[in-house]
User: What shape does this take?
Amino acid sequence: MAEKVTVGRLRGSGTVLRTGMNQPTWPGWFNCLNGPCVIAAEAQQTITMHPWMDKLALTASPTEVYEGDSVTFTPSVSGGMTLIAGSPRWMWVPHQRAIGGQVQTDPPDTQTGGCANGIAICRVRVYRTGNMYLRANLHPATIGEQAFAKVVVKPLKLIATSTPRAVGGSLDWVRVLVRTVPERAFSSITINSVPGPMALRRAHLMSSGAVSAVCDAAAAECQLSGGMAPTSLTVSATTQQGVVVTTTVDVDTLACPTGNSLLDSKEIRTIMDSLWKTGGDAKPAPMRLERTGLLIDSAGILVTRYLDSASATPCSTPGPMSNQDRFEPPNFLPGVMRVVASFHTHPFRKDSITPSNCGALSGRRMGVGPSPADWHSGVYDALDGDRYTRSKFEADLLSPLYRHIVIEPDHVWLMAPPASWSSFPTPSGEVYYVPARGTMKAALSGWERTSPKTKDFCLAPTNKGTTFAR
Amino acid sequence: MLNKAYVKLFAVFLCSFAGTFAVRPSTSLTQPPHSPCNIEGQNFDTAAFDRVRTVLTYTGDVGIDNAAIRDTLGIAGVRIEDVVVVTDTILCRRALNAWKAFFPSYGPKEAQAAVQTTGGLLLRLAPNRYALALAVFDPWTIATFFVTDSNFVMVKPWM
Assistant: This one.
């Protein structure tokens, strides 16, 4: 049989209850004549006591934060007692962290002046999980009381992205965009480079100097110069709260670099090539489908999502940015993920006649470039989604360089937000948005697809206009 | 049929084709609400005029082959100056009814749009060619076009 034993402080006052005393046998008076009169009796004695309830409590707010965030510790007193002014003594004790068998004590784990002794409410930045201890005297208690509150500190993650992600060789004009998850402002950023063997050889041949980086902490980016790709960059950043975070980012090499920061990545070329092939450019016209996809920056890693084509036709498809559920947990992690680009294909050449299974778009002559609906679903809906995500999750949905990309047999079109929009409310209550007159040209860049038309395809900028220009 | 009372108004629109004046919203047509000659959606009249101008005049270097479209619609040789806005409600009604009879064949969404649409901007492109522009969003041309002959028999459901 198990018995629960609780060991703790007891305090209180009460009466001793003595029960079951045997009545002594009455002695004769003569037994007490020559000294103290002792009458012995046996009895059981029970002492009833109550556990002392802690009268001092400490609350942390919030109880879970990221490195460098501030936490407020507030004491509370119960049982009709009061905190004696000037008596609080604060002590922050971070949990010790063992790395390689050795306990690490890393600054800055010291509490700041915000929690000086005597302060009644303490606010302090914390950098590691730990406990805040408070010792204080209560009135009218006779001894000091102690309480503690635990705070869990989660690490910041540093994400660095090179733009472009791949170059022909030289690192000149490569920018490195830096951010933390969750977002924090920086006080400094530094970059060190470890060039690959091929890059070293190239640098030697081309008399290229070492990589140097000019970083703008306020803008959270660095501009590289000198050096050759491929190279691995070690990025260290210090937040304005004093948290030091480090990560690495690679700058790769690419055949046919365009100089465009979005187009020059292997990942984007792979998704464009795959979407194009699955859209069925080589199939008979009625069997082709407009296909859509997303390129997502997931904590610095580019991942691709090929979207369902169940309701697509050869001439239309649901917009990749139109379904907000796609960008909410658990499908999407706001703050960690950002949409770098969205895509759709136009699987027909200019002047092709659209097949009969295109509904209201059947029998039409194909143009080139984005249609008005493409601007609405690819760009306006994306910006709308970004506004929604910011209000609901306080995080951006779109990467700063977000573009919607239209892939055609002979062209690739990059669509950026125009300077202003025109709205078209319909009698049924729907509203469509397209770039306002004269604003589309600046928001659109066209590229001619040249051979080979594989993931190693080459692109050349074109000044040619789009058919659907307004 | 051209209504004389609106000759001055047409001049404004014809000038607007040439880009001299900004095209006013469809309410400036002085058509009452729910008139069969009134395009109801905001800015759709501007979009419709843009499209007509593009089809009749645009010869961009990689542009769609508008000459082929003009041939298909039977409006080759039509100049932008020849286009007039029809305000005869009987003609507008006939054109609208022809479109309402056709458009639902695309599906339930289109059928609903046809029910909700009570008017359109009817343009006479040529004596035997009319184009009814409707405030139903078209993915390619913004306004939906319905091209007919003078008996309002469909030639093509697009422009």
Summary: Chain A touches chain B through 33 residues (CB under 8 Å). Chain A has three domains: 56-154, 157-253, 266-462.
